[in-house]
Design brief:
By secondary structure, the chain is α/β, with parallel strands linked by helices. The protein has eight helices and five strands; from the N terminus they run E-H-E-H-H-H-E-H-E-H-H-E-H. It has a five-stranded parallel beta sheet with strand order 2-3-1-4-5, sandwiched between helices. The longest helix has 23 residues. It is globular, with a radius of gyration of 17 Å.
Amino acid sequence: MFNIILFGPPGSGKGTQSEKLIAAYGLIHLSTGDILRKEIAEATPLGLEAKKLMDNGILVPDAVVVGMIRSALDNNPHAKGFLFDGFPRTEAQSVALDQLLSEKNTEIGVVLALEVSQDELLKRLLNRGLTSGRPDDNNETIISNRIQEYLNKTTVVANYYSQFNKVVSIKGEGSVETIFTALCSEIDKRLSN
């Protein structure tokens, strides 16, 4: 089983590259947001607990999110691997994820971080805002705040995984195919070890 964490600020092309990586390597996409919505929709015990907290404006605790990830891993015992998206976001979540994966006799193979200049991100998001209908893609101040929040959160996680030599920065500017090739090259290096 080969597991990947893919990082990228808003507008970095993470969604596009995630889809391509999932198709190329037969991975299962684990987006904590998607898992949360699915658990709530299916009214599972974890989903009901999360909904109660969210309805009261309380962040869903790490233990609940890790429980949902455990459930996703348990429900896919024959998976070739997972692509983690939106998780982990803190050092505590990183440690919890590593412990969970260790219980399943696997680990994070690589943390891929798409690096895109702030000017390019701004340009992409404003352009996306022309068609996305998302108000947060039309305001330069909001975009800058989103990028800064991303950097603040992911730096901690990158620092954690750097101690295990698992973080690789990939230039996220250029053609979709060029970026995809660079991502695959890093994955293939680790798969062949």
